[in-house]
Amino acid sequence: MLFSKEVTDEEYEEFATGIIDPQIFHARFFVLLKCFQVLDGPIPKWTHMTKIFMALCAIIAQILLSLSIYHGINNFDISFITEAGTYFFVMSYKLLILSCTKFNIANYHSLQRSMKEDFLYVCNKGGKYRKSFFYNQIQTRKICKLAMIFTGGIAVCMVAFAVFALIFYLATNSAGEGKRPLLFPFWAFDTDFGLTPTYEIAFTFSNTCVIAYAFNYIFMIVTQIIWIREIVAKADIIILCIQDLMDGIHPTNDKKEKDYFGILIKTRMKEIIKHHHSMNTQVLFIHLNRYSFCNLIEHYAGVYKKLLLFEQKICAPVVCLSAYSATEKFETGEFNAILIILCIGAVTLIFVPSYLCTLLSVKISSICYACWDIPFWNASPMIRPYLVLIMQRSLMPLPLTAPGFEEVSVQTFSNKMASAYSFFNMLRQANI
């Protein structure tokens, strides 16, 4: 599977027995939930300062970058506009992610409750259910670890290149000669960002913004990976339950045997419908004296729909503008490794959600095929309407669409990258 290697039996053995707590199994993930104040439990007071600090960094950077864009337009400096515009889009995305942790807390809590229920269910069920579930969870943990390393690595590389550029400037230029390099192209009227201490403040601030954004994005991408793969794990449980629905059932003329088979099928069908409802439809339950809804897909869409659609709109401009700005600087003799890293990172990190949503769509559709694979003709006609409803529900598109937007998929990602390349060529060939 993409981004992960096969899980070995030795890795599974650690979780083959006993009740496993998801908060211990996905310890890093729950630490991130705590830092962003969406943990379904006690929240430390210091986390307020973390979120306020990240929001302030993004807002101040946006203000300065807005002035930079104004300056670039005023001087008709396309390269400066594209560089400032790229970072402006990135900071806007950061604020959107933070807003989700403020206004969609109930959705995050629903995910955590569903994880606890599924862990408890498979631990008590045992057998192939437990093995399939924990193989999936171990793979999920590996993917999350890789995503953390990759996203953090991009930020570290950007800061490292900024420091290297400054060292190279100090080694090749005498005092007062040229302009010291900054990670962000800041401009603010009569302020000279090349003078001390303004330069030192701006240099530290821009590097801090990059690290804060990486931490913010790690939370977003890791949560998304776990959320989607939790839905996939739930779909696997449903498929296994459907495969076991007719296990031991055969045609008979004996009334007692018929009654026994009928009760057995009803019990198994009740379990299937319970899991399918918790994945696909809103199930009302009482929690902490208030009504809430446990629904993995709807709650996932409630948080990530706006993020994914925002990505869909800005991915082509960010990739195009960063590539164009880096190319323009290279032609003037300046190698801007930071923009190249940003461009590569943007392509990779936009591909991941597209791939995950495609995987999710295929997995949910596979529930329909599992219904076809069982010998339902051996059972009474009573279960057939339920199977039809499950199949119809499984073939419905994901609730991640809106007017003016395309579906979130690998195909849409491919189209957006083709658009970015077309825009890039248009800018390169334009006589401006």
Task: Produce a short descriptive summary.
The protein has 432 residues and is mostly helical.
Overall description:
By secondary structure, the protein is mainly alpha-helical. Helices cover 73% and strands 2% of the residues. Helix 7 runs antiparallel to helix 8, helix 10 packs parallel to helix 13 and helix 11 packs antiparallel against helix 12. Strand 1 and strand 2 form a beta hairpin. A two-stranded antiparallel ribbon has the order 1-2. The chain has one domain. About 3% of the residues have low confidence. The protein contains 13 helices and two strands. It holds the Pfam family 7tm_6.
Could you name the key traits of this structure?
432 residues, mainly alpha, two-stranded antiparallel ribbon, elongated, Odorant receptor, olfactory receptor activity, sensory transduction
**Helix fraction?**
over 70%
Care to count the β-strands? 2
Helix tally equals: 13
Largest sheet: 2 strands, antiparallel
What's the oligomerization state? single chain
Organism: Euphydryas editha
InterPro entries: 7tm6_olfct_rcpt
Subcellular location: Cell membrane; Membrane
Family: Belongs to the insect chemoreceptor superfamily. Heteromeric odorant receptor channel (TC 1.A.69) family.
